[in-house]
Specification:
7-stranded parallel sheet; 12 strands; Rossmann fold; binds nicotinamide-adenine-dinucleotide; Dihydrodipicolinate Reductase, domain 2; 36% helix; 23% strand; alpha/beta; 5-stranded mixed sheet
């Protein structure tokens, strides 16, 4: 049996799940301790390597997370909000590091994740890349520096299979911008303009979403003044970026006390925006 920390990937057949498996297998610092998919999925009971179209790996895809978690130290989870809430409770029972990349959670789901973080190390971030987390810091700085004469608009673009909008990253950037102005995002957020909306309200933070093709993820934060515009932009071109960040978060979490953390903690970027 490997002495290296064991990592479970949940949602292994998903776009991110496959990336996470590749990242774990390529790492010499961890071993793949298990693979989980939802009940009824066609991969259940199959060898993961064969399900992925390659050589057998000796790991069967399971729909019993509790049994799999018992053999691991950390879980990488990019699935759905309800699934992630369930996995957080199981991670708390098994005292694991739970890295959550899933986006689109509502308040009650976030509260349940926080409750689980009393017993598990939970690292949750709408975006696991260093670049975006740095962009968030820069957004906060720009919002602190520029007053409401500068309208803040956040535009994001993603592939045509994405189910939530605005993206978790766009909301994270919105929170950073609002925090820079000493406000809560909820009080200034303007989402989904349509029809006769009236003029833009001073101080609002606007969101717009583009969906199409295979776009991995693009985010632009605009500070639009009179006669000038500052644009902060991040473009992700490869999902491996997020998988690498998630694995880094899992390794970082192994030495921490239970609690709720984000990528600012992992990357040493200081308190979240
Ligand atoms: P996807 O639909 O391709 O994959 C989701 C997988 O989760 C599917 O295979 C599905 O069967 C599985 N799943 C659903 N319920 C499950 C359950 N109860 N148990 C086990 N598996 C279950 O989606 P995706 O593009 O991989 O994205 C997944 C999530 O990750 C989304 O919320 C997305 O926004 C987010 N995401 C976050 C980042 C980041 O850096 N934080 C980056 C990319 C995507």
């Amino acid at each position: 049996m490997s002495e290296l920390p064991g990592i479970v990937v949940v949602g292994v057949s998903g776009r991110m799940g496959r990336m996470l498996v590749h990242e774990v297998l390529a790492s010499d610092r961890v071993h793949l301790a298990g693979a989980v998919e939802r009940e009824g999925h066609e991969w259940i009971g199959k060898d993961l390597g064969e399900a992925l179209g390659g050589a057998p790996l000796g790991t069967r895809v399971s729909d019993d997370p509790l049994e799999v978690f018992a053999r691991a130290q950390a879980v990488l989870d990019f699935t759905t909000p309800e699934a992630s809430v369930g996995f957080a409770a199981l991670a708390a029972q098994a005292r694991l590091v739970h890295v959550i990349g899933t986006t689109g959670m509502d308040r009650s789901q976030l509260a349940r994740i926080d409750a689980a973080a009393r017993h598990a190390v939970i690292v949750r971030a709408g975006n696991m890349s260093l670049g975006v987390n740095l962009l968030s810091r820069l957004t906060r700085l720009a919002a602190e520096t520029l007053d409401a004469d500068y309208d803040i608009e956040i535009v994001e673009a993603h592939h045509n299979q994405k189910v939530d909008a605005p993206s978790g990253t766009a909301l994270m950037l919105g929170e950073a911008a609002a925090a820079g102005r000493g406000l809560a995002l909820d009080s200034v957020s303007e989402r989904g303009r349509d029809g006769i909306t009236g003029a833009r309200r001073r101080g609002d933070i606007g969101f717009a979403s583009v969906r199409g093709g295979d776009i991995v993820g693009e985010h632009e934060v605009m500070f639009i003044g009179q006669g000038e515009r500052i644009v902060l932009r991040h473009v992700a071109t490869d999902r491996r970026l997020f998988a690498r960040g998630a694995l880094k978060a899992a390794l970082w979490g192994l030495d921490r006390k239970p609690g709720a953390y984000d990528m600012n903690d992992v990357l040493g970027l200081g308190a979240a925006g």
